[in-house]
Amino acid sequence: MATYTNFQALLQVGGGGGGGDLATVLGAGNTTGGSDIEFSSGDGIVSTATVGGAGFDLEIRGSDGDVGFLGGNLDLYPGTGGLGDGTINLNGDVTITGALSVSNLITGTGSPETVTVAGVSSIFQRTDGGAGNSVYFKASGAGNTGWVPAGPPVFEAFVAVGVATFVTARAVFDDPVALGVENIAVFWNGVLQREGGLDDYTVAFNPASATVTLTSVPPPGDFVTIRYLPE
After folding, report:
1. Mean pLDDT over residues 11-22, rounded?
2. I need a labelling partner for 11 at 20 to 30 A (CA). Which of 49, 64, 168, 225 fits?
3. Are strands 123-126 and 105-108 parallel, antiparallel or unpaired?
4. Measured between alpha carbons, how far is 11 from 228 in angstroms, rounded to an integer?
């Protein structure tokens, strides 16, 4: 292992070429195994260019794994200190092409309800979501329940044809842990209806939709609008 003090390990200067790779600069014997290079102070690895020249890319990769083995991780650990711990600073735009998983910021597909474990205030970014359910927040619990779509609610409009039943085009969030979220509302000719067995309508939640049944049949031509949070 090579240890360098107050040393810039790799300094490339020029307008588009000239700097050697790290193996050449450091010499043989310092490019394999764990912890090959340590920096006790100063800049670690620097890639620069002269004024007017093209910048150099700096790419750091974990090693590939053979068949039957995992590829190498790329881990960044800021140091600890008596006056405070170090931080990881990213100055400039950041592009992420894979899934992002931070302790309270999670990316995935499908609804996180009953699937994804997280703490309260966590955020789930649903890559296959649509209007109203592309982002969820964790409203309660430490397990895999308590996720709520961030919204906004979607609206579906129907023209009555002499039946009391209306089916939404998407699954509706049914508030399984009774968080008090306003997940669905029904309007008949613009008038808000009351939900419940003894009121104006009832709701049956299905895997891919919700069925709203009014207690009275709207005359043909009347307008029924359903506002809901999609699951």
Report:
1. 44
2. 64
3. parallel
4. 58
CB 214 within 8 A of CB 193: yes
Instruction: Give the length of the chain.
Output: 231
Ramachandran class of 151: left when φ > 0, alpha when ψ lies in -120 to 50, beta otherwise: left
- Number of neighbours of residue 181 by Cβ within 10 angstroms: 15
What φ, ψ does residue 25 adopt, rounded to 5°?
-65, -45
Residue 108 burial (C-beta neighbours within 10 Å; 0-12, 13-18, 19+)? middle
DSSP state, residue 153:
-
The C-alpha atoms of residue 186 and residue 205 are separated, in whole angstroms, by 14
- Beta-sheet pairing, 184-188 with 191-192: antiparallel
Both structure tokens of 76: 């960044």
- Residue 219, pLDDT > 90, answer yes
* Token pair 């588009």: residue: 16
Residue for token digits 């049914």?
A: 174
Both tokens of 28, joined, read: 């043989």
Nearest to 26 by CA among 61, 57, 63, 1: 1
Q: Which token pair is 29?
A: 């014997």
- 210: burial class by Cβ within 10 Å (0-12, 13-18, 19+)? buried
